[in-house]
Amino acid sequence: MIKLIATDLDGTLFYPKDRIFGMPQSNATFIKNYLKKGLHFLFISGRSTMVVPKLHKKFKTDIPFLGCNGSYLLENGKLSQCNPLDRKALFDFYCWAKSYYSVLIFFLFDEHIPLYLHMDKLSKPLQKSFVLGNDLFYGFYREKLVIGEESFVKKLTETDNYKMMLSFGFGQSQASKAHQVAYDCQERFGKYFSFAVSDSSIEITAKNINKGYGLRNYCLSHNISFNDVFVIGDSGNDLFMFQDFPHTFSMNHAPDFVKSQANHHVDKVSDLEKYIIDPSLTEKDQIKSIIFDKELAK
Fold first, then answer.
1. Pairwise CA distance, residues 208 & 173, whole Å
2. What is the mean pLDDT of each run of 10 residues along the chain (298 residues)?
3. Domain ranges within the chain, ordered by starting residue
4. CATH assignment of 4-82+210-297?
5. Are 4 and 122 in contact (CB under 8 A)?
6. pTM of the predicted structure, to 2 decimals
7. Separation CA 155–CA 132 (nearest Å)
């Protein structure tokens, strides 16, 4: 019997994007209906907590949130399972990445709302356009941004942070670059951090901390069997959630590399309803051996 649905946000629950409501009405209705029936949900995201009040308002309840790819759990207004990045190693990593790679944007996340960015590869007009676009067009997904290297480095060195992200831009060439750089990152800083590639970005969390780690801990602490969980996502960092759970779902728009490692594929999160209604659709599910980087599969 399914007791928990663990869902990624961007590209999954928030797909197709709706800048006003955040997600398709079918997804919102699905969650509301099954919350009433006693099914539990867990939101797992690379995002920080800025989106959480919007989700609580939509569902009129406190749905647990694993933020920064499982680096902390926000549940009933309290923070737990906190795994911050090593400050000294993170500063060394930042200096190294900045010197050797053409990173378009550095992002820094903690458990608070502002998102810190450094964009020295973008001209001042382009930086302003980036901020303006975030303010005017992102709607539900809008983040509060703090721009500039001085504030970025101060935040990096003086407070706890849970995720850094390196964005290389857009397109297949930049996605390939992200995968290659991730190898170099792992080789040099693998004893301090974990690295996950999503599209053309690299996400850095504390060593062995990822969405799968956070989900496993959540289930163990709440006495939920891994066999009683539906897991759904769409990108590389979601593969960590697939490795210990048999009932795995990828979005149909996900890269083929991700889809191949899930047991089922759906168009929307709300499509999970038919699998809840008919357990025979998932009774033969087995845990797959996950490959975490598409380059290794070649």
1. 28
2. 97 95 97 97 94 94 96 95 97 97 95 91 84 82 92 96 95 91 95 92 96 97 98 94 96 94 98 98 94 57
3. 4-82+210-297, 87-206
4. 3.40.50.1000
5. no
6. 0.92
7. 23
The C-alpha atoms of residue 90 and residue 36 are separated, in whole angstroms, by 43
What is the fold, at CATH topology level, of the domain defined by 87-206? 3.30.1240
The confidence score (pLDDT) of residue 294 equals 60
Q: In this predicted structure, what is the pLDDT of residue 296?
A: 42
Tell me the C-alpha to C-alpha distance, in Å, between residue 161 and each of 21, 152, 156, 276. 29, 11, 7, 38
